[in-house]
Amino acid sequence: MSFSTSGGASVSRSAHARSPRQYAIVGIASLIGTTIEWYDFFVYGTAAALVFNRIFFPAFDPITGTLAAFGTYAAGFFARPIGAMVFGHFGDKVGRKSMLLLTLVMMGMPTVLIGVVPTYDKIGYWAAVILIVMRVIQGIAIGGEYGGAVLMAVEHAPKGKRGFFGSLPQAGVAFGLVLSALAMSAVAKLPEDAMLSYGWRIPFWASVILLSVGWFIRLRVAESPDFERVKAQGAQVKAPVVEVMSKHKRALLTVAGGRLAEVTWFYTAATFSLSYATQHLHLSSGTILNAVVWGAAAALGTIPIAGWLADRLQPRVVFGLGCLAICAFAFGFFELLGASGVGSVYLAMLGALGVVYALLYGPEANLFSAQFPASVRYSGISLAVQTSGAIGGGLAPVIATWLVKLDGGQTGYLSWYLVALGLIALVSTGLMRKDEATS
User: What fold is seen in the domain 20-438?
Assistant: First the structure.
């Protein structure tokens, strides 16, 4: 078994066979570890959409307050490229596993601290400053977590199952969203005064338990065999980030172009839609949160299915279908949200998260990792994914709120924006290198 340190994009195998139990540990650790980190990230986004405009920015009108709350949310995204460069460098030089353990702590502790931040009524705008600092730390952690999580899964995977194993940390994102939405939905049932006083803090405090579980599980996973081989053969690159930007521009641009549509779609459906549904469509927060839970729960099953399909087809084919699905469903999603009846709201989320998002996210780890050689793979995939994530994810709720306001409360401009990103992603996918292991 071999790997390429330049030009080639195949993901290598370990020279030693692993037992089914070892593969199971890798799969479970990939799923659970990512679930915990993304729970922390999503619980903030949900709170920002439903609560923070009222307790941290009460001096503004509802729409401006929502924009301000999403602004602190976006701060975490713009810190991601920093995490990508820092953790990508050390992930390629020191190892994948140690970076994953560090990002887990950096993600969990700020979440707990956010749960004790005083509100605007107590310390004024200093509350928002503290939120931003915590979000920046979280953003740096997530910036380094994604690359390590998907590479540990893909590089440990048995032959012919890289798509499925790579989809497991991706499914963890959906699981994290389910847990965060369930937590916020539960406390949303409290009386309004109790919810605004202490109820919203409970899901943040719960991260202590999740952090402990994640640490224990990730400790049990061995280092990536691809990294160990690169290190043993002395093929490590002195400056991985510089190497990626100077010698792998095509991979950077195509991965970023593909990822931009996916991440914008997800945060428009899972985060922006919460404020849009409650403020413009006058739906209850419980209704839209429950719809998100059902959509994310469906994605828990459909993301691994999409990864499985990527093992049998080409990852580019499955991802390309997701790009086309964005274009086809961009208008229908908001029409279903605004239609009469709770059932249409649930159908909108099932389609947005359980179908469109799954087609994009399931094959992503396999497809994107194949664009970079093992010696710079952590840096390459992290930098491309997190740069587009900062633009698409961080600005998605802000841009969506602005476009709806510009369109007089309608979603036509926003839908066309999503279609345009879907087309850009489709072109980017066509320009990506074919996954050699599935060709």
Answer: Growth Hormone; Chain: A; (1.20.1250)
